[in-house]
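Quick one: structure for this chain?
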Amino acid sequence: QVQLQESGPGLVKPSQTLSLTCTVSGGSITTKYYYWSWIRQPPGKGLEWMGAIYYSGSTYYSPSLKSRTSISRDTSKNQFTLQLSSVTPEDTAVYYCYVPLGDSGYWGQGTQVTVSS
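Got it. Here's what it folds into:
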């Protein structure tokens, strides 16, 4: 069974870059046709897809976040990483990593990130 685990700082200052890592076990991030996403949920709002990295290494981003978002991977560690630059308090959210496998996909447990000085 695939398991995903987010890690990273819970507090980021405005204008800085948020960086989170998702560590994957039970499956390889290079397995064909899989794509690995970052999704966030601000307080009181719905889920927002931010972007994804495909098994090939190709990346795709939400148009609204594309200018500030970068997703990369370390295949040797079976991890993929989110970087979100120039953060503001509006980027405060629970951040999830996700892979659409099986009936409902697999989610990390989520990590709270607060943007505040």
